[in-house]
Structure formats: C-alpha cells, structure tokens
Design a protein that fits this description.
The protein is an all-alpha fold. About 85% of the residues lie in helices and about 0% in strands.
Length: about 450
Amino acid sequence: MLHSRANHRIDMTQGPLWRNVFVFSVPLILSSWLQLLFNAADTIVVGRFSGAQALAAVGSTGSINQLLICLFLGLGTGANVIVARAIGAKNYDLASKGAHTAVATALISGVILAFAGFFLARPLLKLMDSPEDVIDLATVYMRIIFIGMPMQLLYNFCAALLRSVGDTKRPLYILTVAGVANVILNLFFVIVLHMSVAGVALATVASHTISAILVLHSLTKRNDMLHIDLKKLRIHPQIFLQIARIGLPTGIQSAMFSIANVLIQSTRNSFGSIVMAGCAASSNVGGFISQGVNAFSMACTSFVSQNYGAKNPRRILRSMGVCLTWGLLITGMMGVGGYIFGEQLLSLYNTDPEVVYWGMQQFTVVNVPYLLMGFQSVFSGALRGIGYSLLPMCISIVGICLFRVVWVMTIFKATPTLRCLNLSYPVSWVITGIVMGITFFHFYKRIKARMLQENSSAV
C-alpha cells in the first residue's frame, strides 16, 4: 500500500538515479513554470491592456513579496527534509506527524503574512523609492496578493510534502487547472471589468485558492504516511523545532537573495518607469529559466535527505552529482534558447520598442548565464539534505547579499549603467558557488566516515 502507483511515489534510495532525478524534476519544472504563469499572466495582461505604469507597478512588487514570504517558505523546505529523512529511515509515524505539523504551520504562517503584507505594503514601496506614477497601483496589487497568502503557503507546504515521497506529478496537474483559471480570470477582470492591477491580483489569489484546496484534498485521500486527517492538524513542538532548525536558515538564505534583489530593484527604479517595465518583463522570462536550477536543487534536497536517512553515503554523492549535471544542462539550453527568442518573448509583455530594448539589456547579462546559479543552488540543496542548513545561509549572506550591496556602492557607483548593475548577478553566483562546493565536500567527508563506521558496527 505504501508503494501504490496511485500515489506517484519515486524510490529515491534505489533504482537508476539519472532517470529518477529527471522524472522527479521535469514535473517540478513544469509546475514552477505554471506558478510563474500566475505572474506572467498578470504582467502580460496588465502590460498590454493597462499600460507601462501598470506593468511597472506589478513587476516592482515581486522582490518585496519574495522577501516577506521566503522565510515561511523555508519552513516548507524544512518539512520536506524532515519527512523525507523519516521515510528514508522507514519511520512512518514521524513522517505522518511531520506532515500534520507542516500543514498547520502553513495556515498559521499564512495568516501572519496576510496582516504583515497588507499593512507594510506602502511603507516598503516608499522605502524602495517607488516612483509616484507607480506606487498607488503597486500598493493595491500587493495588498490583494497578501490577503490570499494563507492559500499560497498552504499549497507550497503541501507540495513540499509530496516532493518528500517523489510525487511531483500531482502538483503539476493541480497547477494546470489553477493556471488556466488564472488566465481566464485575468482577461475577464482586466478587459471586461477594467480593474487593471486589482483585477490581476484577484485572479492570482483565486488561482492560489484553487490549487491549495485541490492539493490539500489530495493529501486527505492518500493511503500512506502523508495522509492528512484535518481533525488531527496540530503543531508537534519537537518536530516543529526540527523543521525550524533546517527551514529558518533556508528561509533566511532565500531572504538574502530577496534583500539583494530589493536593493537592485531600488536602484533600477532610479532609471524610470520605462526601464522598470523592461526589467520587469525580462525578470519574468528569466524566472522560467531559473526554474531549471531550482527544480534540481529541490530534487537534490529530497534525494540527499532520503539517502541520508537510509545511511547511504555513496548515493548521497551520486544524487548531488546527477542533480548538478541535469541542472546545468537544462538551464544552459533554456538560457541560449531564451536569448535567441528574447525580443519576441519580451514583446509579449509590452510592444514598446524602448521597453523591449531595456529588457534585452538585462536579459543578456542576467538570464543567459543562469546556469552559473546552478552550482550554488544545488550545493546548497545538498547541504540542507545532510542537515547543514545554517552554513548555506551564512555563505549566501556574504556571497549574495553583502557582495551585491558592496557592488552597488562601489563598482556601480563608478559606472552607473544598467549593464554594470546587472553584472552583480553572475559574478555573485560564481563566487558563492565555489564556496558552497568546497563546504559541501568538506562536510560530506565527515558524514561518509561516520555512516561507514555506523554501518560496520551494525553488521
């Protein structure tokens, strides 16, 4: 029953790694793309039918939104690691308690974020020097998005639980339904009701609600350790502490990216709304490319976590290597393909030649070399999988956040161009990736020696 095909499980501790990682990750990439379609549909519809200011308003909120939610999304990653590790060790009672704790945490966190985002929206936009012709629209969009935050977090936590058993297909099916609903509602609210940014925000919240209800329903119908009984939802303190130990540093690490991106976005804002609109379109397209890296990073965390629980050091290392290779290959191909069709893709968001021009300026420097982000992302995922979540956070604070702050204050100040500003991305990825790799192999050697000793003692 635990290995029922209906539950879409992948055995991460046995079988061919190249195939299993690919089968795990491709639906994850497609699911991430569908999630990005929520934002892409927002920006395309509002850019085409409400103008460059509305497009800039929607695009300028992305980094703030991520900054506020990433800490809580990190807890979802922590739940994924704890549950996957319990499954690898065949401790199904711990896995079940971890799943119930994760769902309860998602709902409570979502309510906290809803209040925080609603009341902090305008002050944060002012802090980022959002232009006067953009800030009112951006505030409306941001407040509506955060009202729906409980549903967004509920979906993400539940999807993280499904990843712990290798089920990445079900979220894909669910997001397909939600994505279609999002596009239809976007067109209706903006074109028919003329609601501009408020309309696309409401459509996104409705889509998140649909996906959350469907994924939670699927967990209540499972017949394995991930079965959710709504009457038993509660936070188990000891398990929550384990989740937080891994999840909070992961969330803070993601926040470092967001803080750096907020700084970059604030600097971009100084170039005016046309440049902001071009960068917003480019960032949306780049988001699709980056999901190749993110998917294999999440795959690495899940595969490494299960094999850590199973005390299989050789497969831990092979899992990391396979995930890294797949991530570099697929993201590299997407980056080249995106560059070839860059102008056509950017024109989907706004046909103004000046907007497309500035979008391409960012595209060539940031989007094409996204594969460089693969090293730091996959090594970071591997470190989380073996239980070292604090170290990737510290490395990211220095290599991503602090480095980009210094870059803006020194190199960009000396050469204040958009290209110079955007160069901070690939340079920081390379530096952080090298340090992450050295750190992973250092601690892997320790874990391998300990596991081999424990396995010998057991024999």
